[in-house]
Amino acid sequence: MNIRWRDKTHGGLNGWLEAALFVIAISALTVLYAIAQAAGAHMSVFIFYTMAASAAGMLAITGWGKDAGDVILARQSWVFGTATVGLEALYFLLLGILTPAEASLALRLAVPVSLVIGWLFFSRTMTNRIWFGAAIIIVAVIPILWGLDNARIFSATLLALACALVVSIKTFASEFHPWNRRAETVREKLRVTGLVVLATTLIAATALICSVFLVVYGILPANPMTPEPAAFWHVPTLALALFCGAPVFIAMTYLTFSSVVKIGTESFLGTSALTPFSALALEALAAGFGILAVPNYDWKLIPLILLGVVGVFIVISGRHKSAPSEIPAR
């Protein structure tokens, strides 16, 4: 078997290798969220500072470029940014019903949702094998929703499907972003990614400022998603976002934009099925160094996660065999 470590057509590493590195990066970011929360950070503020520092860091390395305004104002940039901010809100609500491990498994619904979107809107090929793999993923998620009481099962199912839809839209936006598809070097890909993250940061800033304003003036009741003004000056939040969150977020978003053009949204989201295992390993490592207290893991979820992984591999193998060169050219 001849393994290609680099992609000569699109630049950078092989798309599958980048997707695997993305799994490690997003797992590291999940662990950082837990560390920041333990340090007293408000998650909305931590995420905002992380995105802002990431955009600044990427653009400091690459420069803005003459077409910066066009990249920022591109429809796909704002779809990606709005979906990113919306996903944080929806996932926050989902965590009010499911445990973090359960919510992570529920997000695997993004694979069948992305398959349906690709089939309906982007003429992706679907075979019986791919449909079968998608069905297995759904079967893996059903038990965590079915086990809820009647008052919560509908809300949890709706939120899980909404998160899956938003994740799919966000990833398709990065795959079909015209400047991302034209970028042929790591530096150019990093520049485009930085500009899109900047657009995302502007959307997040608008949402944060509006929510804080509405709560401070009593128009909306206080809620866990809206930080108090003092949270913006919390030193541990700033330090963790600048020196830990930003480097990981840069890696995560760059790998997303680079990999998704090479292997497609559906396959990229499929690799995320390994995220729970990667996150569990990094949590154990952080706990071993005494920097994170890890709660008891629900080991009963392992068979369901493994079942989801089986479904994902069936989907990926089905896509590869039915249409290995299906991803549209730039």
From TrEMBL:
Highest taxon of the lineage: Bacteria
Spans through the membrane? 20-40, 46-65, 77-99, 105-122, 129-147, 153-173, 194-220, 232-257, 269-293, 299-316
Q: Which UniProt keywords apply?
A: Membrane, Transmembrane, Transmembrane helix
Q: Does the keyword Metal-binding apply?
A: no
> What is this protein called in UniProt?
EamA domain-containing protein
